[in-house]
Every structure is written in structure tokens, then in C-alpha cells.
Amino acid sequence: MRELKPWLELILKRPGRLVVGGFLILATLLSGIALLAVSGWFLTKTALVGLLLAAGVAATINLYVPGGAIRFFAVSRTVFRYLERVYNHDTVLRLLTDIRVNLFSRLSRATRVRRGELSGAQWLSRLTSDVDALDTLYLRLIAPTALAGLVTLLVVVLAAILFDVGTAILVGLLLVIALAVATVGVYLRTWQLAARQSDRQEELRTAVIEHIEGFSELTAAGRTGKHAAWLMRQAHQVTSEQAKTDTRVGWHLAGTHLLVNLSAVLALWAGFTLFQAGTLSGPVLVLLPIALLGLAEVYAMLPDAFGKLGATIASAARLNRDCREEERQAVNEKQELPPETALLADNIAVKHAGYAPLFTRFNLEIEDGKRIGILGHSGSGKSSLADVLAGLLPVAQGSLARRDCVYLTQKTVLFEDTLRANLLLGSPEASDTELWSMLEQMELAERFATEPDQLDTWLGSAGSRLSGGEARRVALARVLLNPAPLVILDEPFTGLDAETRSRIAKRMESLLEGKTVVSLAHGSDALPGTDRVIYLSG
Fold first, then answer.
1. ABC transporter domain: from which residue to which, for each copy (predicted)?
2. How far apart are CA 443 and CA 495, in angstroms?
3. pLDDT at 368 (0 to 100)
4. What is the distance between the alpha carbons of residues 238 and 226, in angstroms, rounded to a whole number?
5. Cβ–Cβ contacts within 10 Å for residue 5, how many?
6. What pLDDT is recorded for position 333?
7. Which of 41, 176, 180, 224 could cross-link with 283 by S-S, CB 3.0 to 4.6 Å?
């Protein structure tokens, strides 16, 4: 259960909404139970009055009060159910927002190495199915369980008031056992199965995605049919375990209903004894048993929720493990830098976990407004050094201090969104005029001016609607829009021909005026203007 603790703490940060949502669920349940109880009382009262009148005995019945109560509870049940669905689903969406923001905040502080430990299919599973298992934790598990306990207590109190304390104790005992069977009993019987099934479902989803991604290679190797057959076997195993879990949940649900019905029979038997003694009227006699039968609706939602609790805990464990915050050396704040210094690397080592260091005893000091070029061949460690300077890779030893920076990575990263949305990541407050001006500098204005949607042109998955050079210039424009005083550029002109590269490099002189620039490339012709150049060997 400790795996759920950080997510429960996150959910409980909205106590007001949780209380209101719980009240709406409680009002819905009580309206339903009251509707059944009053209807049973009214039908019994009507039948008895009819029998007395048929026997020639004078009898009367008030049709208006119970009739009005029945209409009231029927309407209130419908209204509260509607309000509960609207309000609690809105709450769930807010909780989903909180969970995803928290999750992405963790991931943003993780190193590239950590994020690279899982495949794209596994991250997709984390961000979809694992998150989905947590976002309904309140609505599916917490609220129903708490309210089932509260409603049970209210019914036991009603039994003590209408009948006697002995009957209330016996009914309460049966209901407590029923509640335990529907919750703790289901969890103990299914948590291992559910957790194992959750892991296997993730493995199956990952395998299916990889099958689709590698379909061409499988076809070329003649392995499509065999791999598909293997997937079917895995799917059959998952469904078999699901059937086993569902069977256990079903038996516990049946046992819960049996205990609730036994409590109703017990209340009826005890009420009949009190009726014979003349201390209880016939209509009141049936009121409690019918109210107890109404508890079946309250308990019915619990076994399924607790049957999935093991899978929910497994999802939380995966998220806690793969998205945990790392203890990493923080980059010093800019006020700790020496005066007029933008970046200071003192005796740092660049190293990936599990591998030998790429650099040791690396020192670099850059004054404000200076432009440094770093050259090295493939494999010399340029990108790893850039990751360290930008704070994406922790310093293995030594210390690093720098001003706020913006970083153009070697890999061009565009999101499946509009051109405007991708550019505004660099400067959320930028106006359309500023965006068009930057596109003009990158020689992209004419390209998008001819598009029907212009700035709202959809770029496709990872910028698939653009050529490699166009995508690189969009990413470069996004970086240059950012007001950060330190700019780190790793291979800024990838995919550009020599003439285009030369023209854009000249324009960047004014765009980068007053900023400190660290640019990395294979050759000097791939660098913007620099004050000095550092050569990496190795």
C-alpha cells in the first residue's frame, strides 16, 4: 500500500472537491434507499388498510405524505445522481491533471539516461494505462468504501431506533462481515493475480506496439506469422488470468449479496417477533428489511474496485520506480557565479552511468556575451558535454555554475501540434509579429505564408510534414525566441545546405546580440560566429 502513498497525498490536496463529491454520492445512495423503504412502507400500509376495509373495519390512510415522500426521493435520486456524475467526473479530470503535471515534472528533472531506460512503448504504457489506473482511485475506491461504511452505520442506527439494540447489533455484525468480504476479502484473494496480470498486460501492449513498428522487418525475415502467434498466446494467457480474477470477484460479490439478504431476513424475523408483541406496526416491520436490501447497490461496486486494487498498486509501483526523482547535483544559481561570468565549469567529469568517463578534469569559464565554439568528431563526447552544460546530465565530479539557459539538442524535437504551438514553447508571450519575424530570419516565412492555416499549420508527428532542414530551422527559431541569457546549440545547422547555413549564421549575429553562446559541431563551417574555438580529442 505504501506505493499508493505519494498519489493519495496528491489526490487529497483537493479536500473541498472530494468532500462535495462524496456528499453527492451519499445523497444519491440515501435517496435510493429511502425511496425503497418508504415505497415498501406505503405498499404495506395500503394493503393492510385495504384488508381492514374489506373486513368491515374502519381504517384510514394518509396518501399525501408518503406519496409526496416517494416523489421527492425519486426526483432527488435522479437529480443527485446527475450532479454527482457531472461534478465527480470533473473532479477526476482535475485529479488526472494533477497526476500528469506531477509525473511530467518528475520526468523533466530526470536525466536523459533515465528516460532512455524504457522504450517508447513502455513510456506510452506509463503515461496512459498506469496513469488511468490512478486517476479514478478516488471515485472507484476511496469514496465508495468510505460511504459504504457510513451508510452501513446509518442503517444500523435506524435498526436500533425502529426495532431494538439486539437486532441492530446482529444486523450490524452481518453487514460488517459483508463489507469485509466485499473489500479486504476480495483484495487478499486477487491482489497477486491482479498485479501479475497488470505486468503482463503492459508486456503485451509493448510487444504489440513493437510488432507494428517492426512489421516491415518481421515481414522481410518471414517471422510475421510466428510473432503474431506468439502474441496470441500471450493474449490468451492474459485473458485466462483475467477470467480467474473475475471468477473470484464474482464469488465474493455473491457472498456479499447473500450476507446482505441474510441481514434483511434477520430483520424481518426480528420485526415479526416485535409485531406479535404489539411493539411494532406492520408497515414499519418491512421498512428496515427493504432498506437493507437497498444496501446491495452500495456494496455491489466494491468487489470490482478491490479486485483491481492489486493492478493499481502495481501501476503505482512502476510509476514510482521509473519516474522517481533522482538525487543529482544541482546546477548552481546564477548569483553564485563570479561577476560578469555566464558559465563556470570547475574540474568536472562527464560520465554516463555504467560507462567510463568521457571527460575528466574539464574546466571552462565563459564571460557574459562571449561566444564559444566546441569542435570534435563523432563519438568525442560533444553532445554529452552539452547535456552536462545544460543540466540534463548530472556532473560526475567537480562543480558547474551557469546562468539560465536554452538548449538546442542534436536531435530535432518537434511536437505533434501547430507551428505556432511549437514556437511558443520558446517564448509563450511572443506575438504573431515576432513569430513571423523569426520565421523570416530562418527563411521559413514564405514557406508557411502559402499554407492555408499559416501559423496554425499542423506539423504532423515529430514534424513529419516538414523536411529535415525545415524542421531544424523551426527548432532553431524556437530556441532563438527564448530570452535566456545563455544559449547552447548542438549542431545547429543539421540538414541545411552550405548557402542556407551561411545566410542564417549571419542573421544569427544580431539575434544573439548580448547573449552568451556555446555552439558545438563537427567542423568550423557548421558553427555560427565565435570568439574562440575549443577542440575535443579522443
1. 343-538
2. 14
3. 81
4. 19
5. 11
6. 42
7. 41
CB atoms within 10 A of CB 23: 15
pLDDT for position 240: 86
Most confident of 20-24, 131-135, 506-510, 515-519: 20-24
Instruction: Tell me the one-letter amino acid at 397.
Output: Q
DSSP-assigned beta bridge partners for residue 488: 407, 518
pLDDT at residue 128 is higher than 80: no
Calculate helix-pair angle for 468-481, 498-511, nearest 10 degrees.
Answer: 10
Q: What are phi and psi of 63, to 5 degrees?
A: -85, -20
- Regarding predicted confidence, which is higher, 33 or 525? 33
Rounded to whole angstroms, how far apart are CA atoms 273 and 280?
9
Grid cell 510487444 in the structure block, residue: 207
Return the bridge partners of 407, or none. Answer: 488
| CA separation for the pair 533, 117 (Å, rounded) | 34
Q: What is the pLDDT of residue 469?
A: 82
**Around 286, how many Cα atoms within 13 Å sit in the side-chain half-sphere?**
15
290 touches 40 (CB < 8 A): yes
Please give the C-alpha separations between residue 368 and each of 468, 483, 505, 518, 534, in angstroms, as whole numbers. 33, 14, 20, 11, 17
Domain 2-323, CATH: 1.20.1560.10
Domain ranges of the chain: 2-323, 341-535
C-alpha cell at 386: 552539452
Q: How many helices (H) and strands (E) does the chain have?
A: 21, 8
Query: Cell numbers at residue 147, please?
Result: 460511504
Q: What is d(CA 152, CA 176) in angstroms, rounded to the nearest whole number? A: 8
For residue 411, pLDDT beyond 50: yes
Task: At 249, list the grid cell.
Answer: 470477484
Distance CA 173, CA 169 (A): 6
Average pLDDT, the chain: 82
The grid coordinates of residue 363 equal 574546466
Q: What is the pLDDT of residues 48-63, one digit of tens each?
A: 788 877 877 777 777 7
Segment 187-197 mean pLDDT: 87
Per-residue pLDDT tens for 248-258?
Answer: 999 999 999 99
- 8 Å CB contact between 186 and 249: yes
The number of beta carbons lying within 10 Å of the beta carbon of residue 278 is: 7
- Is CATH 3.40.190.120 the classification given to domain 341-535? no
Cα 72 from chain centre: 39
CA 345, CA 360: separation in Å to the nearest integer? 11
> What single string gives the DSSP state of each residue in 319-378?
HHHHTPPP--PPPBPGGGSPTTEEEEEEEEEE--TTS--SEEEEEEEEETT-EEEEE--T
Nearest to 535 by CA among 375, 379, 380: 375
Task: Give me the pLDDT at residue 110, please.
Answer: 66
Cell numbers for 470: 525545415
Q: What does the alpha-carbon distance between residue 286 and residue 62 come to, in Å, rounded to a whole number?
A: 18
Q: Can you tell me the distance from the alpha carbon of 293 to that of 187, in angstroms, rounded to the nearest whole number?
A: 24
Percent of the chain with pLDDT over 90: 11
Q: Enumerate the H helices of 417-457 as residue ranges.
A: 419-424, 432-441, 445-449
